[in-house]
Sequence to fold (70 residues):
Amino acid sequence: MGAAGAWRELRADRRCSTVQACTCCGRPVFGSVWRAEVDGETHDFCEPRCETLFTGYWLPRHGRPARTEA
Fold:
């Protein structure tokens, strides 16, 4: 199962204090993010390997993560 996402540049906003985190491992993501659509939802990962881990291991074992509204 290969990664199907693409690298995307994150816009830096110095006024914003929120930090984007990897959907799989929770690592903070700065600069570029690996963005992929998984089961019809867009997820951000720190690297393609995390997308592969998420779709091949985490998702089949635990199901969809709960969505948090900001």
User: Anything to note?
Assistant: Helices lie at 48-62. The chain has a mean pLDDT of 85. The longest helix spans residues 48-62. The CA atoms of residues 22 and 46 lie 5 Å apart.
